[in-house]
Predict the 3D structure of the following.
Amino acid sequence: MSVGEDQGLPSPQGQGAPVAPGASARGAPARRPRTAREARAMRGPYGRLGQAVEELDERLGIARGLRVFLDKIFPDHWSFMLGEIALYSFIVLVATGIFLTLYYVPSVSKIIYHGPYAPLRGQSVTEAYASTVNLSFGVRAGLLMRQMHHWAADIFLGAIVIHMARIFFTGAFRRPRELNWTIGLTLLILSLANGFIGYSLPDDLVSGTGIRIMFSILLSIPFVGSYLAFFLFGGNYPGTAIIPRMFIVHVLILPVIIAGLIGAHLFLLVRQKHTQFPGRGRTARNVVGSPMYPHFIAKTTGFLFMVAGVTAVLGATAQINPIWQFGQYEPYKITYAVQPDWYMGWLDGALRIMPSWEFAGWGHTIPFVVFLPAVVFPGLIFTLCFAWPAIERWYTKDYSSHQLLDRPRDRPKRTAAGAAMLALMMTLLGASATDVLANFFNASLNTVLWTFRVLVFVDPIVVGLLTWRICLEMQGAPGVGRRKRAVVISRTPEGEYVSTPAAVRPGDERPELEPVPVPAYITFEPSRVNGEGRTEASGRRGGVGVRRVPR
Amino acid sequence: MSDEFETPSGHGAAVTSLPFDDPHLQEPVRHPRRTEAVIGIAFLIGLLAFALFGAVYVQNWPAWTYGLTLGIGMLSVGFGMAAWGKYLMPQGPFVEPRESHESSEQERQAALASIVDRGGVAIKRRKVLGGLLGGGLGIFGIVALFPLLRSLGPLPGKTLLRTNWRKGSLLVDVNGRPVHRDDLQVGGIMTVFPAGFENNTQDQAVDQTVLIRAQTGNLVTRPGRETWAPEGYVAYSKVCTHAGCPVGLYEQQLKLLVCPCHQSMFNVVGGAWPVFGPAPRPLPQLPLYFDENGYLHSQTGYDQAIGPSYYERE
C-alpha cells in the first residue's frame, strides 16, 4: 500500500497552486495587493484561513501543534463516551447554574412572601426560599433552568460513577494512569459534596432536614466534632451563616476546583493518550480510532447537544425537587419519606441500618451510631478506592505500564471485587428507603431493617462470587461473542477424521482496513482500486478536504 | 505493516497522503444518500424546534413548552452531528503512535543535579538563614490558618447544653398561645416552645418540644419522674438523639414517637426510651405542672443536653 508516504514538509503554497508574484513563500507580503484577484492569489490556496494560520504560526508557532491536535486519535468504543456524559453535564450545570445565580438570594432573613406563587402569599419565608420559588415561577424559562440544573447534577454524578466503573473493570487505572484515577476520584468526592450543598440551598423542608443531619454528623466526630460544626455553621445549628457560606462554596470554590481538576484530568488524558482494547492493528505503542478532526469533533459536539437535550426534555417533562410542595424549612417541622438525592442515598442507608451503638463514659460520648456509618465508612470506602491501584500492584506483583485494556472476564478477581463494591453501594441505597419499602410491601419496618442488615453483608459476597464464577465460565469459551470460523471435517482413506479450519469468511477478512495514519493530504492519483467510477465530485463527498496534487 | 508507525517520530507526525479512493476514506455506510436524508431531517427538526423555542419565549407559553422545544431541538441537532461524524466521514481506522514520555537517564540526572547540587551550593551553605526562613514560613503557614478557621464561628463552650427552658417557663405553641389543660384529647400531640422564644428560628431549633397527652391520669414515665407528666401531659425534646431530625410522628395505638428520617422509635409512656432504630438514647423529658389557671409550665429546664451526641457530652 502506498499510504503513509512521507512528502516532507511542503510549503503552504503547495505544488501546482498559482503563486502570486508579490507574495513570498513565508513572511509578510512584499506589497499591498491591487485587485481582489491578486489579493486572493496572495493568500494562497487556503484563502483567509491559510493566511490566519500563517500569521499565527509566524508569531506563536501553532501549526505543528495544531496538526498533532487535529490528528489526535480517539478509540471507537462506546464505553469511552461515559466520561463525556459527565463532562457535558458539567457544562450544562455551569450554564444553567450561572442563570440561577442571577436570581437566587443566599439569605435566611425572613420576609413576607408577595410573589407570583399564590399559595405562599402572606407567609413568612426566608429570602433563599422565596427567591427559589420566584425564579421558578416569575422568571421566564426559570423553572426549566432550575430543573435542568438539578437533573444535570443527578446525571453528572451517575455518569461519573459509571465512567469510574468502566475504568475500574477494564483496568485503565493501572500504571501509568494512577494519577488520573486519583484526580477522577477527587472529582467524584467534590461533586458529591457540591451536589449535596447545591440541593440544600433552597432552604426547603427536605433539604433543611439534610443540613440538620449534616450538623449532627459533624458533631459525632470525636475530639473536634463540635468545634468543626460550630466553625462551619458559625455557631449552633441552624444559625444564619450556613446558607450564604454554602452558596459561595457551591457557586465559586468547588466549581473552580472541579473545573481545574477536569482540566488536569483531560490534560493527562491527552498527554498519556487513550487506552484501547486489544484488536486488529492495536498495540501498546499506538492508538487506533478516529481523528479529532473532523470525526470526533462532530461526534462529541453532537453528543454535547444530546446530553443537554436530554436534560432539557427531563427538565420540561419530569418534575424534580418541587420545593413549593415541601414548604419553607422550619427547624421544628418534618415530612414523611425524607430522602436525599440518589448519590447521597448510600450514606443515608448506612445511617439507617447501623445498630444504636454509643460509647459514654469518663465524661465523654462517642456516638458510633453516627460516626461509623457517616464518617468512618465513607472514609474507608474512598481510601480503598484511592489505594486500589497500589493494592492491585502489590497483589499481582505487576509493576509494568499498561496501554491495552483488560476485558473484565479476563481479570475475574478484580471484576468480582468491583461488582461486590457496586452491590454494597446499591444495597445501602436501597436501605435509604426502608420506610418506603415497608409501606410498599406492607411489611413491618423491623423486617425490612433486618433484611437490609443481612443483605448488606450477603449481597457483596454473593454478587462477588457469582461475578467471579461467570468470568471464569466466559474465559472457558474463548470465542464467545466472536464470529466463529467454520471447520471442515474430512475423512482420510484410512478412515481417520481430520478437522481443518476453513478459510476466513470472505466478509471477515479485510486487510485493506489495517489502520493508517491520518492523512494530511488527499491526492487524486489515478485510482488503484478502479472500477467504481468515482470522480472528483464523489471524492469530495467523503467529507474531507480535497486537494489536487499533481504527480 | 503497523510497525513502521510505532517508531517514535518526535512531535510532528509524518505528513502523509492518501488517494481519494483509498478504502480508509470511504464512508462506513452502504447508502450515504439515505443517511444524508435522515441527518437532514434531524437538522430541519432542530431548526424548527429552536425557532419554536423563540416563539415560546416571546409568547411565554406554559413552562414545559420551553424545555420540550429546546430539548427536542438540541437532541435533533446533536443526533444529526453525531450521525454525520459516525456515518458520513472516512471510516478509517486511523492510527497514531504512542510515544514514551520518559526522558533519558542523562536528562533525569541533570534535572536532579540541578535541584540538589546547584541548590545545595547556594542554600545549604547558609544553614542559619535557611532555618530562620523555614521557621518563619512555617509559623506563617500555621497562623494564616487561624483566621480561616477560627473566625468562622464561636467556640462551642456550653452552648450545646443550653435551651431556653427555665423553671416556670410557660408552654406556648408556635403562635404564642399558651397550652391549657383542655387543649389536647388523649392521643393529641403538639409542638411547644417556652413563651417568648416561639418566633425565633435559632431558639425553635433547640427549644422545640413535643407535647403529648398520653392518658387522662397522671403519667409516671420513669422512677423519679412521678410529678413530671400531670394528667397524662408528657413533654419530650423534639430533637432526635440520633441525627437531630424533629421527632414529628406519633403512633397513637402503640404510643410511640417516630422519627421520619431514620425511623427511630421512642416509647412515650416509658420515658421516650428508644425501642427501635438507630437512636442511642432516650429523648430528654421536660417536667411539667399546671398553674392555677390550668396552663402548662415547665418545672425546670432539661436535665441534660438535648439532641444528638457529641464528644464533650457527659
